[in-house]
Amino acid sequence: MSATIYTDSDADQTALDGRVVAVLGHGNQGAAQAANLRDSGIEMIVGNRDDEYLAPARDAGFAVFSIAEAARRADVALLLIPDEVQPSVFAEQIAPGLTSGNTLVVASGYNVAFGLLDVPAGVDVVMVAPRMIGAAVRTRYERRVGYPCFVSAERDATGDALRTALAVAKGIGGTQAGAVASSAREEAALDLFSEQAIWPAIMSVFQTAYQVLHAEGFSDEAILNELYLSGEPAEIFARVARSGLLGQLGLHSQTSQYGQLRGLGRLDPSELARRFTGVLRDDILSGDFAREWSAADPERRLAELRAHAEQHPLAAAERALLAEQP
Ligand code: NAI
User: Which of 182, 217, 248 is at the close of a domain?
Assistant: First the structure.
């Protein structure tokens, strides 16, 4: 399946004319998106609670209000606070200020996809989700190179939701490199899949490799440098981003290429496929993970899981080697 790609010429910034745009949360994404919107000529305000993010927003020259007041003033409200606090902050401080004809813009599909925001009737809901950390959303906008961005209209009460979404996307630089037509469900599912299927598998590969090599008598220094401490995998992934998984193979020796392709052909991916399908369907798309995470005490649960992971022998070897590094 191929998706529609929206570019700058598909976006009409006049969709925001005469509308108050509010960035709610001047954090990683909020600071970058607010600066980009202002440089795109869009008049906007910032909403932030009284914490360490407030002064930088004022110092940047924005009119800053409480989140509730900014939401009340907003015609277009960009929800840029952490996903895990959005449901309660939205219900208590933002929803009461939104009225029919307003637009709620989310930068991540999670809370919309899993029905965790109770958005007042008549309010459009759109997603403008940069696939980029906030600092680079700003620097890439300044360099006019853009970054990948997912866009969707989730609830079109006014008939103008997509037009508003594209105007916001263009304002933050998200259509410069082409924005992908997606959905909150797709964005959230892909994000969670990467986190819950792909990265645990990669971490498990490194843990298992360490145990096998350590048991065979290889030194921790040699093993960990071979695995990742040298930074070589980071170099390889930078090449993968430019030339593709197979395209970058030409940078390796023939022995290496032969070994990699021979090994790949001998692996049976069916067990991993079964596991990945289970994570996608049973944990993510079913909403089970979202329900579990909503019900959890996040700090305590994360501390427990981290403590368990720290017990793996690879973690101890890593700590010792990193402590020796200058
Ligand atoms: P962040 O962690 O930088 O958020 C800090 C901001 O949230 C500050 O303005 C802070 O005052 C406010 N905040 C924190 N807790 C609050 C609370 N309890 N009540 C009121 N305000 C509170 O957030 P980040 O990373 O910028 O994420 C914002 C949104 O952007 C999320 O939906 C996230 O999924 C999305 N996103 C983040 C990316 C990233 O690289 N950080 C990339 C793409 C999307």
Answer: 182
**How do residues 83-121 score in pLDDT, each as one tens digit?**
999 999 999 999 999 999 999 999 999 999 999 999 999
| pLDDT tens-digit series, residues 227-272 | 999 999 999 999 999 999 999 999 999 999 999 999 999 999 999 9
Q: How far is the CA of 24 from the centre of ligand 1 (A)?
A: 9
Structural domain harbouring 117: 5-182
Same domain? 297 vs 161: no
- Domain-terminating residue out of 182, 197, 213: 182
Single pTM value for the model: 0.91
**Residue 77 DSSP SS3:** strand
Give a three-class secondary structure readout of 61-128: CCCEECHHHHHHHCCEEEECCCHHHHHHHHHHHHHHHCCCCCEEEECCCHHHHCCCCCCCCCCEEEEE
Number of domains composing the chain: 2
Protein residue closest via CA to atom 39 of ligand 1? 133
Decide: 85 in ligand 1 pocket, CB within 6 A.
yes
**150 shares its domain with 222:** no
